[in-house]
Amino acid sequence: MIAAGAEATIDLATGHRVSLLQRNTGDLITGLHLIGSVADGDFRPAMSDLDFVAVLSRPLDDEDAEALVLVHRSYRTDPTLPRLDGIWLTEAELRAGPDAIADGPTSQQGDFVIEARGNRNPVTWHALPDAVSLIGALDRAALWQDAERLTGWVGDNAATYWRNWLSRSSGISPGMLGRAAPMWGVLGISRLAYTKATCAIASKSAAGQWALTAFNPRWRPILEEALAYRRGEPSKYGNPLARRRDALAFVEMAIAEVVG
């Protein structure tokens, strides 16, 4: 279900983004493909990023990099627009797949970084068949796909990123007394569990719905809380400490399930 205001926000953000690229980058961009919440129908204004894969006609030189920095700065002048989060790569790198390519130009948390890993991982490539293309065409049949590598990466990510997240969040973390951080943890690790079980990619909301029946019923209250927050509905938890406790316990359990 599309959230209220989502379509207008997406149209405004994507139109502005394409216009900035066309005005400032010449023939540099041959493809711009949206993945994540825009593509899977789970976009939430003021909550979701604009996730993408951009295809370059050539490796960046200094002038190209300066143009992309300008695009990001210009885009950020409207704070109501979703943050940019994506990778910039050549057609050859797109065909090669994530494991065969080096770090490179990346948009992360709205900023342009000339060299970072970003989302150069199997999840991105497995999401691309369902991408929404704004510029250029995407040869979906030729995309790198490897289900075994996908599930292996998911297990590694749970063992590294998510265990570190759990450790930080279990300490002094005021954000865990709110609703956003527990939602991020509960639905984020649910996405990995879904992918590990099905070799498919799901939105945060779809993964949370799947988790309601995939895991023990004891986890239903915290899953329903995370889903309710994402839908903009009020909390049923009267005690933020209880919500924090349940979210951390769920993430710990789900990490163990994913890592195996």
Word description of this protein:
This protein has helices at 6-24, 37-40, 62-75, 91-96, 122-127, 147-170, 180-198, 204-214, 220-231, 240-259, and strands at residues 29-34, 50-56, 84-90, 104-108, 111-116, 132-135. It is α+β, with helices and mostly antiparallel strands. It has a six-stranded mixed beta sheet. Strand 2, helix 3 (62-75) and strand 3 form a beta-alpha-beta unit. Helix 6 (147-170) runs antiparallel to helix 7. It starts with 5 loop residues before the first helix and ends with a helix. The relative contact order is 0.11.
Briefly summarize what is shown:
By secondary structure, the chain is an alpha+beta fold. Helices cover 52% and strands 13% of the residues.
Write out key terms for the chains shown.
globular; six-stranded mixed sheet; alpha+beta; 260 residues
Write the layout of secondary structure elements.
Blueprint: H1 6-24, E1 29-34, H2 37-40, E2 50-56, H3 62-75, E3 84-90, H4 91-96, E4 104-108, E5 111-116, H5 122-127, E6 132-135, H6 147-170, H7 180-198, H8 204-214, H9 220-231, H10 240-259
Parallel strand pairs: 2-3
Antiparallel strand pairs: 1-2, 1-6, 3-4, 4-5
Number of helices: 10
Task: Give the end-to-end Cα distance, rounded to a whole number of Å.
Answer: 33 Å
- Helix content range of the residues, please? 40-55%
Task: Walk across the major sheet and give the strand order.
Answer: 5-4-3-2-1-6
Q: Low-confidence runs (pLDDT<50, min 5 residues)?
A: none
Structural class: alpha+beta
Q: Give me the strand/helix succession.
A: HEHEHEHEEHEHHHHH
Q: Tell me the overall shape.
A: globular
- Strand fraction: 5-15%
Task: Look at the structure and give the mean pLDDT.
Answer: 97
The tally of strands reads: 6
* Main β-sheet description: 6 strands, mixed
Q: How big is the Rg?
A: 19 Å
